[in-house]
Specification:
about 280 residues, Metal Binding Protein, Guanine Nucleotide Exchange Factor, Chain A, seven-stranded antiparallel β-sheet, about 0% helix, about 45% strand
Length: about 280
């Protein structure tokens, strides 16, 4: 049984407190849930997997992973590769490469044919390296970066609370017409109408990042006199429908500006991936 102080290692679900899986690593959890969506993967210009019977694997310290029944993968397009990887929590993974692809899709598919005791039985399932295939689709919508975690919520709520953004003793934005974005496990972000932002301090950036829950982000640098903070402001010109309320609104990185206040209260500087040299979506710059 999972101890109360170990519940942070994996999603907080009461059934997990009854699971005993790995005596050598107490609190470490793997489990699967069925995914009702149609999931497809495209590689080398063709769909190599198409299934409505996908499992989502949840594993402590990892993002969720889609696993496809082998019957729903075009295994005739693949050949066994030389690569083997080993996980103490799942077993030895055998990898497969796409045939006739000039090495561009080597070892993109893996399978645990003989899972270790205590692991989920994935022996008849396979998965793909997300960034080594061309595209992923949930139903007919393309998904970016990684699986959308069903245990993560993104709520975009209009708010009349006054948000003020200050940097280098200059107020660069002030608005009581913002949208507050609440995302599970992350600090609240405040998206403001561009009309309430002093645009003379914004310099366009060519940076683009993608988020599975919001879409593709565009950026501005923030320049006050001779000081520039690169990519300190971002916005989503065409967000996914769940985040439609933040369309075109600007968000300032509280990590880097001098101060953001909400109704006069300083929200502080969150310690996120941005502080440690990663971009907003968790990838090293």
């Amino acid at each position: 049984m999972r101890k109360a102080h170990l519940r942070a290692r994996g999603p907080f679900l009461p059934p997990l407190d009854q699971i005993t899986q790995y005596p050598f690593e107490p609190g470490y959890v793997t489990f699967t849930l069925p995914c009702p969506k149609r999931i497809r993967v495209k590689a080398n210009g063709q769909f190599v997997a198409d299934s409505t019977r996908v499992l989502i694997l949840f594993e402590s310290d990892h993002i969720p992973i889609y696993y496809f029944p082998l019957e729903d993968i075009q295994m005739n397009l693949f050949e066994p590769g030389e690569r083997r990887t080993q996980s103490p929590f799942k077993g030895v993974a055998k990898h497969y490469s796409l045939k006739d692809a000039d090495g561009r899709y080597d070892d993109i598919l893996w399978q645990y044919a003989d899972p270790v005791p205590g692991s989920c039985d994935l022996s008849q399932y396979g998965s793909f390296y997300w960034h080594e295939v061309d595209q992923w689709f949930e139903e007919d919508e393309q998904v970016f970066v990684h699986v959308r975690d069903p245990f993560r919520r993104v709520d975009c709520l209009p708010s009349s609370r006054l948000v003020s953004v200050e940097h280098e003793r200059t107020v660069v934005a002030a608005s009581a017409r913002g949208v507050f974005l609440f995302e599970t496990g992350l600090p609240t972000r405040h998206y403001l109408p561009i009309e309430d932002v002093r645009r003379e301090y914004l310099e366009p950036s060519n940076t683009r990042t993608q988020c599975p829950y919001k879409g593709e982000a565009h950026y501005y640098h923030l320049q006050i006199r001779d000081k520039v903070i690169k990519d300190a402001v971002w916005y989503y010109p065409e967000p996914v429908h769940e985040a439609a309320r933040i369309r075109g609104l600007l968000c300032f990185a509280a990590e880097f500006v001098t101060r953001i206040t909400v109704d006069g209260e300083d929200i502080g500087k969150p310690q996120t991936a941005l502080v440690h040299g990663y971009n907003y979506h968790g990838y090293k710059e």
